[in-house]
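Quarterly update from the structural biology core.
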Amino acid sequence: MDEARGDSACFADDVGSRCKTAAMTLLSELSERIPGRAHGPGTTEYDAGRTVFAGVGEPDAVVRPRTAEEAAIAVAAAAAGGFPVAVRSGGHGSMPVSGGLVVDLAEFTSIEVGDDGLVTVGGGARWGDVAAALAPHGVGISSGDTRDVGVGGLALGGGIGWFVREQGLTVDALRGAELVTATGEVLTVDAESHPELFWALRGGGGNFGVVTKFVFQAFPVDPLVGGQVHFDQSDVPAVLRAWRDVMRAGPERLNSTLVVMPPFAPEMPVGPQLGVALRGTEEELRRLLEPLLSLPSVTTVDLEPMAYGELLDDAPPGRPPFLLVGGNGFVPELSDAALDAVAAAYDREVPTMILLRALGGAFSRVDPEATAIAHRQAEALLMVNGALPADATAEQVAAAKAGSDAAMAFTSGVYGNFSVEQGDHVIEAMYPPDTLQRLRRVKSQFDPHNVFRQNHNIAPAG
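Predicted structure, tokenized:
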């Protein structure tokens, strides 16, 4: 029992008749108050709404509202009964929920582009659709890497996108939001209206309510050139060093991610794979990348002019059929020692995936206190994940994690959008102490009973 909710609360581990009755009452109440919008088990809408990228839940009800007011009715009813509320945004969203309510934002997909470069995006839209809507205007928003990822989850968690060095995070482009709170209020949140809540939304995840509408400031993206460069496995350390040196010397208009893939299957590429984008010309891009392009381990080079939307990939279907063990963190300095540790983490018996995302530039110019994303002084984001069988033993998991710890020792903080692990230790790594305490104070004001807890949860201040 959650003491903050009192005796009226129902939770997934309480399967008594009281909670079953309360769940039926919740679905019945919502069906009456917002007809045709509340769905229970056995319906198509329920099955769609209970499924997110992280898995499949068993909520008591799924609501698919058409307006912020309908979402507010649903949230207020769930909160009054002590039910947790999860949010599904663009096919992604909160962690799966067993018991409680899912608010599925599938109807909130509108995208409106203003003459002033302000773009209003529904909380259920996907980044591929946003890119397509912005293309005729020659503008973009620094967003996720795949077309299918939802706007809401990525934006609220920070948003490290293709233009992070030139334009910063997705949250750095956020100018306002329409938010449904735990009490069923619909608020307009921006720098003037509820400024502390606006600060918390930019990196605090889905802890503070349901965002039904975002307002972003877009920026020019033409002309744009980008593509891929692949390398074999013959000299991974040389690729790591050359990539670091290229990014240090290059302009902020140069953005890139270096992924190093282990041998998984014959049809999958193995070795370093560079994804790159530059606002400029192909000639300039090839000149900037020359230290990499001249390495003997280069196998393919595919660079050409493209539209912003072409940078986005299709997401892999479903969750990987193996267990990923490792983590991510912000690297203050890509020293030779740090890169040696990364190379060693890759060169081991456990198949290991490495990701390095270039940061700095506009990302680091934002005051760490300006948003809830406070780990701003970083040269790169690093991910190290060993792949184990889904039924790996605790000993195998511990050994795989130990193999990545030497590389992760060069990082600080955690980027929540890339973290599948949850718990207080993750939250404390995501946010510096002062930032976390400030977030907890905002949480206590707008969600004191922790209704929105199916996420990297920030507990209300006591």
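The chain has a mean pLDDT of 91.
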